[in-house]
Amino acid sequence: MMSYIDIGVNLTGSAFRHDLADVIARAQAVGVGQMIVTGTDVEHSQQASELCLQYPGVLYATAGMHPHHADNFDQIATDVFREFAGLPHVVAIGECGLDYNRNYSSPQAQRSAFEIQLEIAAEHGLPVFLHQRDAHDDFVAILQNFRATLVDVVVHCFTEGEALAHEYLELDCYLGITGWICDERRGRALQQAVKCIPSDKLMLETDAPYLLPRDLKQLPVDKRRNEPYLLPHIAKTTAACMGIAEEQLAQIALQNTKRFFRLD
Ligand SMILES: [Zn+2]
After folding, report:
1. pTM to 2 decimals?
2. Mind listing the pLDDT tens digit for each residue in 175-187?
3. Ligand 1 centroid vs 97 CA: distance in angstroms?
4. Measured between alpha carbons, how far is 52 from 35 in angstroms, rounded to an integer?
């Protein structure tokens, strides 16, 4: 059986509250042996960190604040994320970045929260788990300013085409590929773009419970909820788009993920 690590699972939300143990067991049964639980604000970063203690060696966490919540970013958040950055199971700062799609938080607050989190990551020598939507220019400008201070960077849930992939690759970023690639219509640009991602810069994620792959023959238990056990399905589609064997992609993604998050 091939081994996988899901680099983006939102396991702290209400979607998984009633059957988290089953969700983790289903993932492990198909080789998804480890998962990185995404922290999206102070409370959820705390919950993510606590989950790691319940599943040592299986779950790891990020600590950070999603741009949607940037209006709430304050000194307490800064202090909490600084403290979490020192925990052994907190393997990255994020998810942070910019999302101007609906501006749930003001663009100004988003930029400031993003910069502070990049500073924390730089101080602790931790990689960053980044989110960008409809904010490309500002996102790249800020990232450029900080890039030399940061160790590793992943742009999670990359859904764009080749041109943007190249811009991120020039900044020496990794790209996280989700089930977006399984969407025949919306995923077309991404299906092309993965061909140009160097093999040492690609990682895989479900972003569960979001982004359920659209081409599943058999729906999961909870029909609209994505789960980490579907990661091998995403790997299979991605490998086909890249024109390589599924085993090869799984191997590459696993190595990249262990290196990126400094997992043994
Ligand atoms: Zn995101």
Report:
1. 0.97
2. 999 999 999 999 9
3. 9
4. 10
pLDDT digits (tens, 9 = 90+) for 192-207: 999 999 999 999 999 9
Which residues make up the environment of ion ligand 1, defined by Cβ < 5 Å? Answer: 131
Domain 4-260, what architecture? Alpha-Beta Barrel (3.20)
Which string of b and e fits 202-231 if b means at least 16 CB within 10 Å? bbbbbbbbbbbbeeeeeebeeeebbbbbbb
**Where are the domains positioned within the chain?**
4-260
- 13 Cα: distance to centroid of ligand 1 (angstroms): 14
210 dihedral zone (left: phi>0; alpha: psi -120 to 50; beta): beta
- Give the Å distance between the CA of 104 and the centre of ligand 1: 14
Cβ-Cβ contacts under 8 Å for 99 (sequence gap 6 or more): 66, 67, 68, 110, 131, 132, 133, 134, 135
CA of 214 to the centre of ligand 1 (A): 18
Ligand 1 centre to CA of 212 (Å) is: 14
Report whether 93 contacts 121 (CB < 8 A): yes
Q: Cα–Cα distance between 40 and 161 in angstroms, integer? A: 26
Which value, in Å, is the radius of gyration of the alpha carbons in the chain?
A: 17
